[in-house]
Design brief:
The protein is an alpha/beta fold and 325 residues long. Helix content is 41%, strand content 10%. Strands 5-3-2-6-7-8 form a 6-stranded parallel beta sheet, sandwiched between helices. The chain has a two-stranded antiparallel ribbon with strand order 1-4.
């Protein structure tokens, strides 16, 4: 019999205590503080879409009227070197809530302490070193453990940890979640357990992650409940962003909050064609969640939704330029 055979059975689990971790300072990073795009300086293509200007005006009007602008995003927005655009929109008072997934928090956190993020996955997965970074796993799990004791959400727990440990985080000014923390706006992270590299770490406590992310979901619901006259933007989060938004919207409407005069916009590389037309189960685009859960269903009784097909490195800088004016 193979001595490495674990066995089987409904109670079988794998012990993480002997997992090897590595110093992240020895890692090659694809994204660094030095190559982040700089608003107003880094050249970029302009995004061309006849509806884009209307969206920009709706964003401006929403903030003029004191209504929220919720910015949901996948991790690739950070990996596309766009953190500084988001930070500037926070400082300008445009963004009132940041929402992302676990990977979004990790890339942002790594930039804050390491000045770099985004490892070379194809080579690291071959020997099991992928994601096994000591500082990322240990510090993020420590921050969440401390935050859970104070009943803080996931984003607030990380922001507080960064703020209270400045020597560990020399690059924190370029960290989105830290800027949310010091500018007093919610930054919520919606976690799927087992999807993030810090879940591989021997110090990870899934119950703590669940508690902190659960608190963040209620923060998201509070922002969505105020969305009448506001704007929801989603950049590349094809599953988590779309599903969390739909559930938060259902909760808000169930509780009687008026959330029908809303503007939604989804940004992604996928070309949906006539995304407002009815399609059947035989069309693969039917199963693309943002088409239904962000663009069409939430605006069926008022408001307006769009899908913009473009690269984040073009759409986000163009959006920033037009808002700044």
């Amino acid at each position: 019999m193979d001595n490495n055979f674990i066995g089987s059975g409904k109670s079988m689990t794998l012990d993480f205590k002997n997992i090897k971790t590595y110093d992240s300072h020895n890692r090659h990073n694809l994204v660094t503080i030095e190559n982040l795009m700089i608003p107003g300086k880094t050249p970029h293509e302009n995004f061309e879409d006849p509806d884009f200007l209307e969206l920009v005006e709706r964003i401006k009007q929403a903030r003029k009227n004191g209504r929220p602008v919720i910015w949901s995003m996948g991790a690739h927005v950070i990996k596309n070197r766009l953190s500084r655009y988001i930070i500037q929109l926070i400082k300008m008072g445009i963004i009132t809530h940041i929402a992302s997934n676990g990977a979004g928090s990790i890339h942002d956190f790594e930039l804050a302490y390491l000045g770099g993020t985004s490892e070379d996955v194809p080579t690291a997965i071959e020997d099991g070193s992928f994601g096994m970074w000591e500082q990322t796993g240990a510090w993020m799990n420590e921050a969440l453990k401390l935050g859970a004791k104070e009943n803080l959400g996931y984003g607030e727990a990380l922001g507080k940890y960064i703020a209270e440990n400045p020597k560990k985080f020399p690059y924190r000014e370029d960290c989105v979640l830290y800027q949310c923390y010091i500018n007093n706006i919610p930054c919520s992270y919606h976690i799927a357990l087992g999807t993030d590299i810090i879940h591989q770490h021997p110090t990870c406590d899934m119950s703590i992650i669940g508690k902190c992310s659960g608190i963040d979901f209620k923060k998201m619901c509070a922002s969505v409940a105020q969305l009448d006259g506001g704007v929801f933007l989603n950049f590349g989060s094809a599953v988590i962003g779309a599903e969390v938004f739909l559930k938060a919207l259902s909760i808000a409407r169930n509780l009687g909050y008026p959330t029908f005069n809303i503007t939604t916009a989804n940004f992604d590389l996928i070309n949906l064609g006539n995304y407002r037309s009815k399609i059947g189960y035989d069309d693969p685009n039917y199963y693309y969640r943002p088409r239904k859960n962000i663009v069409n269903r939430p605006t069926s009784q008022g408001g307006k939704g769009w899908h913009f097909n473009g690269d984040h490195q073009i759409t986000i800088p163009t959006l920033y330029d037009l808002i700044k004016g």
